[in-house]
Amino acid sequence: MELVIAEKRINTTFNQPNNSKKANVFFCDKNVTLYKGDSTEKTLFDRPFADLIVTSPPYNVGIEYNSNDDTIDYSQYLQFSRLWMKNCYDWSNDEARFCLNIPLDKNKGGEHSVGADLTKIAQEVGWRYKFTIIWNEGNISRRTAWGSWKSASAPSVIAPVELIAVFYKHQWKKTHGSKLSDISKEEFIDWTNGIWTFNGESKKRIGHPAPFPKELPYRCIKLFSYVGDTVFDPFAGSGTTLLVARDTNRIGVGIELDTNYCELIKNRLGQSLF
Ligand SMILES: C[S@@+](CC[C@H](N)C(=O)[O-])C[C@H]1O[C@@H](n2cnc3c(N)ncnc32)[C@H](O)[C@@H]1O
Questions:
Q1: Which distant-in-sequence residues (6+ apart) come within 8 Å of 166 by Cβ?
Q2: How far apart are CA 147 and CA 126, in angstroms?
Q3: Which atom in ligand 1 lies closest to the alpha carbon of residue 261?
Q4: pLDDT tens for residues 70-100?
Q5: Index of the ligand 1 atom closest to the CA of residue 209
Q6: pLDDT above 60 (res 181)
Q7: Three-class DSSP category at 137
Q8: Fewer Cβ close by (within 10 Å): the C or N end of the chain?
C-alpha cells in the first residue's frame, strides 16, 4: 500500500503476521486487520509485525464481558498477563514500543498493586521499561467506600487515575519506518508531560463494557509511532485503537476474543472518528 502524506510517498508494505492456520481473520481491509482469537495463544502469529502496541487488557475487576471471566484468582490473572505480554514481545519488531493501560491499584476481590505487578511481569518476559504516564480520568469516581469514616482505625485511599506504562523491545531510538512524525509542537510539549487529563469513554455510547477514549490511543500513536507504522491491540474490544490507527494513517492490527465485539468493531470501522 502507498500513502501520500504531506507530499511524501510512504511505502507501508505491511509485514502480514501470518501463515498460521490458528488466526481467524474476522475483518480485513487495506488499513485494518482484525483477528477473532485469544491473545494468550502463542501460535496465533508466526512472525513479528508490530511497531507499537497500545492496549488495555481485562483488569479482572468483575466487568461483565461476553466471553471471558473477569473475576479470576489473582495468581491466575498474573499468569494470563505473563502469557499475552510474552506473545506480544515475540510478535513485535526490534524497535517496537508497548503502551500498557492498566489500573494503579485494585481493591475489588482483595487489594493488589496491579500496576507494579504487571510492570514487573512485562520486564520478566523481556520488555524494557521506559516510563509511566499517569492518566487522570476526569469523569470517573473510583470512590466506593471511605473505610473508617473520620477515623484512623481503617481508612481507605484510592487514586482516581490509571497508568500507561511504556516499554520497548530492544532499542528506544527508532531507526526504521517512514521517519515521518505528525505531532504538532503544542501536542509534543503537552503530551511529554506525564500527567494526561481527559475523560473516560461512555460504555453506553460505544456499546462495550470497558472502552477507553480515543484520546488515549491517539496520543500514544502520535507520540510513539511514525506514519505508516503497524499499531497492534491484542485486546481490541470496541476497536478504538484500530480506528485511531487507521485515521492517523497507520496500519491497525487487532485481536478480540468475542464475536459480538468483533461485529461492533466492524461496524465502527464504517465510521470516521475525526
Ligand atoms: C478492556 S477491554 C478493551 C477495550 C478497548 N481498549 C476499547 O477501547 O474498546 C478488553 C477486551 O479484551 C477482550 N478479551 C478478553 N480476553 C481476551 C483474550 N484472551 N484474547 C483476546 N481478547 C480478549 C474482551 O472481550 C474485551 O473486549
A1: 97, 98, 99, 100, 129, 130, 131, 132, 133, 224
A2: 39
A3: 27
A4: 888 999 999 999 999 999 999 999 999 999 9
A5: 2
A6: yes
A7: strand
A8: C
> What letter represents residue 124's amino acid?
E
- Residue 171 is which amino acid? Q
Q: Is the pLDDT of residue 182 over 50?
A: yes
Residue type, 238: S
Sorted by where each begins, the domain ranges of the chain are: 21-143+156-268
> Are the C-beta atoms of residues 237 and 210 closer than 8 Å to each other?
yes
Which class in CATH covers the domain with range 21-143+156-268? Answer: alpha beta
Q: Distance between CA 238 and CA 216 in Å, rounded?
A: 14
pLDDT for res 4? 44
CB of 201 closer than 8 Å to CB of 211: yes
Q: Tell me, in angstroms, the distance from the centre of ligand 1 to residue 69's CA.
A: 11
pLDDT digits (tens, 9 = 90+) for 191-234: 999 999 999 999 999 999 999 999 999 999 999 999 999 999 99
Residue nearest to atom 12 of ligand 1 (CA): 235
With CA atoms as reference, report the closest residue to 223 among 110, 163, 133, 145. 133
Cα-to-centroid distance, 57 and ligand 1 (Å):
6
Protein residues whose CB sits closer than 6 Å to any atom of ligand 1: 38-40, 56, 58, 65, 67-68, 208, 210-212, 235, 237-238, 240, 255-258, 261
